[in-house]
Amino acid sequence: MWRQIKGLLYFYSTDIRSTLIIFWSILISTTIGSIIISALIKNSEINMIFSLSFALYIFFIIFGFNAVKKLIPFSIKIGATRKNIFLSVGIFLFGFALSQAILVNIAQTIFTKVIDFLDLQTYSFVHPGEMLLTDTWINRVIIDTGIMFFMAITMYVFGLLFYKYGLLGGGSASGVLVLLFMVGLTTGWVTNTMKQLFQTMDSMFFVQMTGIALIIYVFTWVFMNKLTLEKEV
Questions:
Q1: 5, 9, 10, 207: least CB-packed within 10 angstroms?
Q2: Which domain of life is it from (predicted)?
Q3: What is the pLDDT of residues 109-168, one digit of tens each?
Q4: CA separation for the pair 87, 173 (Å, rounded)
Q5: Which has the closest alpha carbon to 9: 87, 103, 67?
Q6: In this predicted model, what pLDDT tens digit does every residue of 87-109 receive, in sequence order?
């Protein structure tokens, strides 16, 4: 069992490697380029704001949705059991979110030191931790892990719906959620809930967000248990 899970985790890690190299190359080069531009216009009144974490949030939204068609078919094709696929994907998504959260905050720490060394007053990084909690490195990692893991799991569920039930099933589920969201906006429920969350938010909120994502992932077993190689239509 664990030997097969290790094999699946190795495949998932190697499969995402090239995509990560491209993503981080673009992110780092863009950051360096923006710092250079800021240094060249150092005495201007233009302020540049950059966020490494938000770029990863978007990456995890896309990755979570695409993970199903990238990981599941190959896992089934090589004969992995549904239980092992279920466990390995869950372990991989959490480990991936945690590792990227650590990496992105190491990168931000390094770039921040470069900015301080160059004395660039017109360039700054933004992070949810600065707006919501005490801005410490650990809090940033907790926040990024919780957000990225939650986003990956949520979009993974949508990916499963589209994979198993096709465009009709996935589109119908998406439509229902959009409708509920619009109703929530109209009645003020969404706005009031968001205000309450921001007022009471602390590091435990993001730990709880990770826990909620795990609970959501447990329910994906309903789809995984009888998942086939071919899409159902």
A1: 10
A2: Bacteria
A3: 999 999 988 888 878 888 877 766 677 888 889 999 999 999 999 999 988 888 776 666
A4: 25
A5: 87
A6: 999 999 999 999 999 999 999 99
